[in-house]
Amino acid sequence: MEPGWVWLCGAGPGDPGLLTLHALNALQQADVVIYDALVQEDILTWAPQAEHIYAGKRGGKPSAKQRDISLRLVDLAREGKRVLRLKGGDPFVFGRGGEEAQTLVQHGVPIRIIPGISAGIGGLAYAGIPVTHRDVNQSVTFVTGHDQSGNTPGSLDWQAISKGSQVIVIYMGMKHIAQIAGALIDAGRALGEPVAVVTTATTAEQQVLETTLGTVVADIETAGLEPPAIICVGRSVLMRQVLDWQGMAAGDAPRDLDPLGRGRPAESA
Length: 269
Ligand code: SAH
Fold this sequence. Notes:
Layout: E1 6-10, H1 21-29, E2 32-35, E3 51-54, H2 66-78, E4 83-87, H3 97-106, E5 111-114, H4 119-126, E6 140-144, H5 158-164, E7 167-171, H6 177-186, E8 194-199, E9 207-212, H7 216-223, E10 229-233, H8 240-243, H9 245-249
Parallel strand pairs: 1-4, 1-5, 2-3, 2-4, 6-7
Antiparallel strand pairs: 7-10, 8-9, 8-10
Helix pairs in contact: 2-3, 5-6
Residues 13-14, 38, 87-90, 93-95, 118-119, 123, 171-172, 198-202, 227-230 line the site of S-adenosyl-L-homocysteine.
């Protein structure tokens, strides 16, 4: 890392093993690390030499304003620091990394972007759910469950998403899951369509709920699940019956070797 530069870096969904080598290098070289709530704090032990600045919401305190964070990055860079801005998942996926990077460039600060593993892909993989599967989907849609004002995004065309995408991966969806599930059902998705809710994915606290569009709201309530969660709607969720690799590592047998009912070995054409 060069003094005066900001590295805007994804930390992955939680498991420190999912950091990139570039992220690890940056952690070891940075003078200062500014990290978000979704970054697992044990990742910071890789940066003992650096100052650690927390820039998220904690203990009910209001979150640092986005503009303040961006300007803080500008100030630190201008002081000649090697600045590592560490964000959960991938910095450019629902993480406002684009806005921070833009502010830095507007202030003449040199940047480097290091992608990370996004929760909507890597988090589902840790639950044994492949985000695409040849027999299920040729496209996948990533959506956010709330907009800047905290409401369900009115700009999302649920009819179009419902028709156009066999698999829908929802970030920040817990608060408005009732409206989202309702909108998808109204748009023609079946009540029995498989849904998975994966909370604190890739960490030791990971929980996975397998449910359906018709029962997801009640089941989240019953299970007492809390954010952060990735919600996946679509038949790829069924693959967990054969690919729950964490369960299998703990001794569980696969529940169904052919959950999509292909009736033929997976490798045949
Ligand atoms: N940039 C991040 C997403 C930030 S938005 C990424 O690429 O993953 C924050 C949302 O991401 C959370 O509300 C949740 O929906 C999801 N998320 C992030 N980390 C998660 C995790 N470990 N487990 C489940 N969901 C996670």
